[in-house]
Design goal:
Shape: globular
CATH architecture: Trefoil
CATH topology: Trefoil (Acidic Fibroblast Growth Factor, subunit A)
Radius of gyration: 14 Å
Helix content: under 10%
Distance between the termini: 28 Å
Number of helices: 0
Structural class: mainly beta
Strand order of the largest sheet: 4-5-9-8
Strand content: 35-45%
Number of strands: 13
Largest sheet: 4 strands, antiparallel
């Protein structure tokens, strides 16, 4: 399943430090709604490339798609949740549109790196939590995507979150 052109909004609050992250997926970009920056693989087609948030430049390393784990072998065009843009609690890959089929991986339960796709590697799988409205990692289920510094940083992390929807 590929998500294209639908606005997805994910918000969460960390009770410990009072910061918010507000992430949308629209037209192939994961967007920080506070800064307008987008998810970016810092290098083209290199294994282990770090992902960061940077200014939108309409370049290949900033283009993404949501690809659900059970449909990773081929693209599908039905069964899409229009309200959130994700199937709730259904694992997916965040796959770069760069060559080599690389995907976002939660590395060491902290950093998010662009890595070679490996079948059934749960650190490369993500899911949309319908209760907290966060994008969580399928390996570290208590970890969610986070943009540091109240969304003001370009550093995307996979960190512990006990968030809830407000």
């Amino acid at each position: 399943m590929i998500s294209r052109g639908i606005n997805l909004r994910t918000r969460y609050r960390n009770n410990g430090s009072n910061w918010w992250s507000d992430i949308s997926f629209k037209d192939g970009y994961f967007v920080n709604n506070k800064s307008g920056q987008v998810l970016d693989a810092t290098s083209q087609s290199v294994e282990g490339t770090q992902t960061v948030m940077s200014n939108k430049q309409n370049i290949p390393q900033q283009k993404w798609r949501v690809e659900y784990v059970d449909k990773a072998e081929k693209e599908k065009t039905q069964g899409f949740n229009e309200e959130f843009g994700f199937h709730i609690n259904r694992p997916f890959y965040i796959r770069s549109r760069l060559p080599m089929r690389r995907v976002a991986e939660c590395h060491g339960a902290n950093n998010v790196w662009l890595k070679r796709w490996r079948k059934n590697t749960t650190a490369q799988q993500w899911y949309f939590d319908g209760v907290s409205k966060t994008i969580r990692n399928n390996h570290w289920k208590s970890h969610a995507l986070d943009i540091q510094s109240n969304g003001g940083s370009n550093n995307l992390r996979c960190t512990t979150s006990n968030s809830r929807w407000w």
